[in-house]
Write a structure and sequence with these properties.
By secondary structure, the chain is α/β, with parallel strands linked by helices. About 25% of the residues lie in helices and about 20% in strands. It has 17 helices and 26 strands. Strands 12-11-10-9-5-2-1-16 form an eight-stranded parallel β-sheet. Strands 17-19-20-26-23-24 form a six-stranded antiparallel β-sheet. Strands 6-8-7 form a three-stranded antiparallel β-sheet, with no helix packed on it. A hairpin with a 3-residue loop joins strand 14 and strand 15. Helix 6 runs parallel beside helix 8, helix 10 crosses helix 12 and helix 14 packs parallel to helix 16.
Length: about 550
């Protein structure tokens, strides 16, 4: 049937025990958009708790919650005015605790966003700081009496919307620094008192039982602000301090970092496993879509080759999309051009001249074969997979919404009123539903797909189930393999004589190709997806239908 060639270089550490987060399947949720439990048109913790059985049956082991703190909500909750309260829109502290307890009963851990690079300008710290230059809160932020020079390499996160990193405050009679919007003044992490405040926030939420944090804008927390008093003397020491405190209070807790830098710069944020345990794999997502656009495995292999090997106990979190834009600012111009031409040809699909503000399913034209293929790759790589809510059923986007809200559409639970998201009148919904076109909730929803054994939802369930049943994904050594056809992506895992082989056809054509496999020649193997046993390998080539994928395992069969 197939296989010929030689073993390639192993690229992972020897077999060892894994931490829970290395084996996790992570699901990202914007609480306001997920499920409305009290009928006011806004998702909340009551509604989220009611949907935990769905997530448990899907196979999710860790929920990542986007910000739900007290906030004026001018930037999707990332403008925090109170780190110790729940935004009333999504419920009360009791609602959150009930959700957290129920998640634990379902075997699901919860991590939450730790947004400590900046606050809202409505935060009491900033209000005190701007009114009195002698208060201790003045040095919680970065101020300058005169317009200071911009630090080398510093630039706005929102080019075209925010044109200066310094804004003059009439009350303070001084300029304050901000990488983000002008209503998000930057905290001064060089100030030991600010670092103590961060640890208090960590302590508060850890005491309730969260399993860790997604550290927002990690590089900016420790970045050069252009002023001596605001530049940490030991930047990564701040991350070690947060990580060390988390481990002292919650052994086994995790820090997942938003570190959208070049891979060689990202590596420093792992430290020796004493800073951030997990990093979001922004770079690979770009190379994946380049591979889809070009129908060429070389692009994906290039992305994989750029990634530094994490220290033991650390890993890359692999995803197709997060709830921001898909950012191409750090990849070659020709790669960005090829992806934009195929997946974001219209200006309304682009944002900040660097990103794509679209969901996975519309980008892949709703073709279930291609969507399955894309997720098969994510679920078959080394490192925890991440799913954004709704992508497991292939929900669409709303390009009429501003900025990043185009992908933050309400979850589509059923074909009933308001997609089963809320019992409120449609005019009260927090955001309009996707009601028309091929991704309408009447055509794409969890209830219908749960009844169809061949639906995208049930395929994703199958991927998750297979991954969780195969410890070789986390304990094995990843091996680099190849095929004779350039459209075929091949990689594998090897552990104690067992081989897991992952094959993906990126092209819209039938392919018959030789896999450069070599070394071991298993006497028997099993197709995990089809659950079929094979004895012997009489034919040296593998036949693949358009966008087909295969997960083969050979357990304990030698050369």
């Amino acid at each position: 049937m197939f296989f010929n060639g030689d073993w390639q270089e192993s690229v992972a550490v020897p077999s060892r025990s894994s931490s829970w987060y290395e084996e996790a399947v992570i699901y990202s949720i914007d609480v306001e958009k997920f499920a409305d439990g009290n009928g006011d048109g806004i998702g909340d913790f009551i509604g989220l708790a009611e949907r935990l059985t769905y997530l448990s049956e899907l196979g999710i082991t860790c929920i990542w919650l986007l910000p739900f703190y007290g906030s004026p909500d001018r930037d999707n909750g990332y403008d925090v005015s109170d780190f110790y309260s729940i935004n009333p829109k999504v419920g009360t502290l009791d609602d959150f605790l009930a959700f957290l307890h129920s998640a634990g009963e379902h075997g699901i851990r919860v991590i939450i966003d730790l947004v400590v690079n900046h606050t809202s300008d409505q935060h009491p710290w900033f209000q005190a700081a701007r009114r009195d230059d002698q208060t201790r809160y003045r040095d919680y932020y970065v101020w300058s009496a005169d317009p200071p020079p911009v630090a080398s390499g510093a630039k706005s996160i929102f080019p075209g919307e925010v044109n200066s990193l310094w804004t003059y405050d009439e009350v303070a009679r001084a300029y304050y620094f901000h990488h983000f919007y002008d209503f998000q003044p930057e905290l001064n992490a060089a100030n030991p008192e600010v670092r103590e405040e961060i640890l208090r926030i960590v302590d508060y939420w850890i005491a309730f039982g969260v399993s860790g944090f997604r550290l927002d804008a990690a590089p900016l927390i420790i970045a050069d602000k252009g002023l001596e008093h605001a530049n940490p003397r030991d930047p990564h020491g701040i991350l070690r301090q947060i990580g060390g405190y988390l481990q002292s209070r919650r052994p086994g807790g995790v820090l997942l970092g938003e570190v959208n830098l070049a891979p060689e710069a990202s590596d420093a944020f792992f430290g020796e496993g004493d800073q951030l345990q997990l990093l979001l794999n922004f770079m690979l997502a770009c190379y994946l879509f380049a591979g889809f656009a070009r129908e060429d495995a070389a692009s994906i292999n290039q992305g994989l080759s750029l990634l530094p090997e994490p220290p033991p106990g650390c890993g890359w979190v692999n995803f197709l999309r997060n709830l921001d834009e898909l950012d191409f600012s750090r990849v070659p111009a020709d790669l960005k051009k090829d992806v934009f031409e195929v997946f974001a040809p219209k200006e309304e699909m682009q944002v900040f001249n660097r990103g794509i503000r679209r969901r996975v399913a519309p980008m892949l034209q709703g073709d279930q074969r291609r969507i399955e293929l894309a997720f098969s790759i994510i679920f078959s790589l080394s490192g925890p997979p991440l799913i954004v809510y709704g992508d497991e059923i292939g929900i669409g986007e709303d390009l009429s919404q501003a900025g990043r809200n185009t992908v933050r559409v309400p979850m589509q639970w059923s074909a009933e009123k308001n997609a089963g998201f809320s019992g409120a009148s449609s005019g009260k919904l927090c955001q309009p539903l996707v009601a028309d076109g091929p991704f309408s909730y009447k055509k794409v929803n969890a209830a219908d797909q749960s009844k169809d054994p061949h639906s995208l939802l049930n395929r994703i369930k199958r991927f998750i189930s297979l991954r969780r049943k195969q410890p070789i994904f986390t304990k094995g050594r990843m091996v680099r393999l190849s095929a004779d056809d350039p459209a075929v992506l091949v990689h594998g895992f090897e552990d104690a004589g067992a081989l897991l082989l992952l094959v993906h056809n990126l092209a819209d054509r039938r392919i018959k190709t030789k896999i450069n496999f070599g070394g071991m020649q298993p006497r028997s193997f099993r197709d995990l997806i089809a659950d079929v046993e094979y004895e012997g390998l009489s034919e040296p080539r593998l036949e693949l239908e358009p966008y087909a994928y295969r997960w083969f395992i050979s357990e304990g069969n030698g050369s």
